[in-house]
Each structure stands twice: as structure tokens, then as C-alpha cells.
Amino acid sequence: MNIMKMGQRVFMQSVRPVVEENKPFIQMGNSTLNHHLIRQMRRPGRGLIFLVSFLTYLLGIFPSLIYALPTNGSVQAGSATINQVSDSRLNISQSSDKSIIDWSSFSIAGGEHVNFQVPSAGSVTLNRVTGNDPSSIFGKLTSNGNLMLINRNGILFGNGAEIDVHGLVATTSDISDTNFINGQYNFNISPEFSNTITNRGTITASEGGLIAFVAPGVKNTGIISARLGKVSLAAGNTFTLDLYGDQLVNLGVDSQVMQSVTGFNGEQLTSLVSNSGNIFADGGTVAMDVRSAQGLIDNVINMSGYIQAQSITEKNGSIYLTGDSNGLVSVSGAIDATGLGTNETGGVVHILGNRVGLYDNAFIDVSGDAGGGLVLVGGDYQGLGSIPTALENYVGANVSIFADAMTGGNGGRTIFWADRRTDFFGTIRSRGGRLFGDGGFAEVSGKEELYFSGRVDTTAANGKSGTLLLDPDYITISGGSGTASASAASSFTTYENILESVASTTNIDMVATSSITLNNSLTFAQTSGQSVTFTATTGNISFTDTSDTIETSGGSIVMSAGGTVSVGAMDTNGGDITLTGTDFTLSGALDAGLEH
Hints:
Blueprint: H1 3-21, H2 23-28, H3 31-42, H4 46-61, E1 74-77, E2 80-86, E3 89-94, E4 98-103, E5 113-117, E6 124-129, E7 135-137, E8 140-143, E9 146-150, E10 155-157, E11 162-165, E12 167-171, H5 177-181, E13 185-187, E14 196-199, E15 202-205, E16 210-215, E17 217-220, E18 223-225, E19 230-235, E20 239-241, E21 249-251, E22 271-275, E23 278-280, E24 285-290, E25 299-303, E26 306-308, E27 318-322, E28 328-331, E29 334-336, E30 348-352, E31 355-358, E32 363-365, E33 374-377, E34 392-395, E35 400-402, E36 413-418, E37 421-424, E38 427-429, E39 441-446, E40 449-452, E41 455-457, E42 467-470, E43 475-478, E44 493-495, H6 496-503, E45 507-512, E46 516-518, E47 522-523, E48 531-536, E49 541-543, E50 549-551, E51 556-561, E52 564-567, E53 569-571, E54 577-580, E55 583-586, E56 590-591
Helix pairs in contact: 1-4
């Protein structure tokens, strides 16, 4: 339905009540009276006010009614034929491998269908909007190849939209015709305004295909599917794309979003990339990336929906949320990179940014039938390697992270790192397989400050338990069960009951760059083959009260200091005791359960 037809229908519906009220004037056929009727309608009265109000109302609640098919298509390169076969159907037949079509507008109303027929799945059609209107797509858009839709004014895939293509790139950035034809997909022409790409519909790529949205603001509340393919939601102004290689969007170094972004409803976006809908890319990759100016916006990425990239046979899924060096990457939804089929392993999840927060009932699962996967939140092991590190990291009390091996194999690796402070109150589970395999590895570290009051399970039914690494600068262990807190910078205070509880389900490795101080006796549940380790890399390990003791149920105690070791009694009930340091002060007995 085009806008003129809609306007005619609304106008008639609006006028009829006025005509019926003046019905005697029409029936009499008196010209004077008819003139009186016309004069009445010209007044800016209730009828006109109603018409304007009603049209405005319709524009707000039924935007799909006002957009027609794409208009004024002009082929700029390649060979393509544009054929409007009906009021609601537009076909584009492309005989060349690539083509460029400029359009005055590119919108599709509900009930309308635009179809691109191209020579092969690898063929590409670039559609560029030269007019000043955003693209609003509420109907069907299909292609057996790859579509690129460029509109500097923004693009909305509305409620009810059905997109079925081999691949789709929707962006507000532009590319030169020469680069496109030469296969150099360098979208280096920045949009004039900070507009958005929004999906509220259903978008499906063929197996192995790509769905990519790149704009200053990107928002998904609908459904996106790309089995064995790639889904990329990226906030930036310029980017490059290797369409036939890794198919990943690489934001340019000059791509930073510099000004606030406005959504299609006129609201200012509270995050530059958000997903409150559903994204599926089993055997493939989902990436959410942001480049933004410092201080532009607090939340750069908000993932409150569902992302699934499960393993398919030997192809693991991978999910990357990368927030650059500014703002908060917030996760309160569910992330599933499991591999639960026979002999499958779990996939990979990275959640990185300047600040990272896992809130509410956030859930991350990389469990696998033959082994757990990898979760990196805020950085890699001890903040080393090329993975960007977070300044701050927060994990709430109702957050769960699973990296179990289900049938066999080892539990996975889960690492939480921050250069300054990590607050961890959630649950980590990285258990060994039911039939065989060892427990996994978990690290919770804050280089300067660490708050730990979480739960960790790295047990193994038929193997060795895994390890929890706590790695701040200073460590103090106090009595009781208070909430873990850092009393000052470069410190970590935890409590007897917290460590003793965790010790029942994992080995513990506490590594302090400087010193470790124990203010209370400790009783750990570690049994034979398990251990608790205290390491002060450059400083001392000391008991505040030398009458305090450390005891295990057969597990080993290992203490290693770059300085002195000053301790009280130790009893391992058969486990080993290993002490390493430059000097020793022993105030109690060391009892490993051996005969003297």
C-alpha cells in the first residue's frame, strides 16, 4: 500500500462523519448550501484536527503502512535488471558477479517483497541510498547471494520483517565504487550523522553466511540466525571486511563514535551496541564490538538477551564481546557456547572492555561432552598475553559460569581479570567428566584489589580436582565469615569460612605479588591428591598469631615466599608440607601424619 492510497483511505474515513452530519444539504442539491458545506470544511475545525491527529497516530503505531517499495533504482556498475512486477513485488535480476545500485529510497512495507536473484551464493549486490530518508523494512527481503545496504540515515528492520539471504551487510558507512568492484571492502567513508541500525524482525543467513550491522549505534531486539556463519554487531564509523576470508568486521583505528546516537523512536541510546533479542550462530561466531570516544556513553555494550553459538561436530562456536578501552560492557542475559553432542567440546567466550560487569542472572555456559571450553572475562591468565585487559571487573551473586566436561575429558578454563579491581560473588563450575578427566582451572584476580565471596567447583568424579587461583598484590585472611572486601588499594581481605567452603570443591592457589598474612586458624577439606598453596612472590608469608594452625584432610600444604616464612602449626593428616623462603620461623609442629 503506498502513501497516497493510505492517505485517500484515511481522508475518506475522516470526512464521512462530517458529510453525514450535513446530509440534508447534499440531498437538496442547492448550490448555496453546497457552498456552505465547502466553506464549513475549509475551517480549521474538529474534522481537520481529527484528520491530522489520526495520521500522526498512524505514523507512530503503523509505520509499515507508509513505506513503499524501493524507488528510482539506477545501476551504477555491473549488470542488473530492476522489474516491479506488481504494487507489492520488486525483482532484481543480476547477471554479473557484482553490481552497484543507487536508490532514492529503499524501504519495504508489510506485505511487500523485494527479491534479488544473482549468479551464485558468492555474488554481491551493493545497494546505496542517496536520498535523505532512513530505510524502514517491514516486509520480505530475499536473495540467493550477498546484499549490502548502505543508508547514512539509518536502517530499521521492523516488527514482522523477514530477511532471508546468503549474507547481509547493513551499514551507515559508505564505500567507493572502485574499492567495491575490486573486492577491497574498505568502508572508509564515515556517515555524516550518528544514526542506527536496528533489527526487530527475523533475519536469516544461509549456512556459512554473514550478518553484519555497522553504525554508530546498533540494536537487536529480534532474531538473527547464521548457522556455521558469522554475526557481527559493531558500533563505529569505518570498517573493513574480508567477505571471503574470516568474514569478521574490523573497525578502523579512526572509527570512534564521537557524538551521542539517537534511535528510531527519537530516544538517545543508552548503549552503542545492544542485544535484548536472540542471536544464533551454531558452529560459527558472534561478535559485538565498539569504538567510542572517552566519556561519550557509560554502557558501550549491553547484552541482556540470548546468544547461542553451540558446537557442531568439530566446529566450536565462539562469542566475543569487546568494548575497547572506554565504557562498560554489561551482560545480564545468557551466553551459550556449549558442545553437548557426542565427542564435542565447549567453545570460546570473551567478554572484554575497560569495565566489565556480569549482572542479575547472567549465565555463561561453555560445557562440552568431551571437555569444557574457555571463558575470558576482563583478560587472560594473570593479565598476560595479547588479550586486552579490563580496569575493573564485577560478577554478581546470581551469576553462573559453567565449563564442565560432561561425559569425559577435563573441565574448562574460566578467567576473571582486572588491572585494578575485581569483585566476584558468583558461581564457577568447571568439573571433570563423569567417566574420566580432571577438574578445570579458574582464576579470579585483581592486580591491585580483589573482592572474592564466590563459589567454585572444579571436582572430578574419576580424576583430579582442578584449581582456583586468587592473584592480587597483597592477601590477608581473617577469621569469621564477613563479606570479602578490600580495605585499601593493593590488598585482598578474605575470610576463613569463605576459603574453607571453597576448599571443599577445589584446590586453592593464592598468589600475592607482595605478602600474605593469616589472622586465623584454617581448616581445609582437601583430601589426598589435593592441595592448598600460598605464594608471596617478592614478600613474606606470616601468621599474626603464631599459635594458629592450618589443617587439611590429607591434602598438601605448599608455602613459597620471596622473603621469610613465619608460621605456626600445620597438620595435613598424611599430605605433604612444602615450605620455601629466604628464612623460616616455625612456632608450632609440622605434622604430615608420618611416623617420627
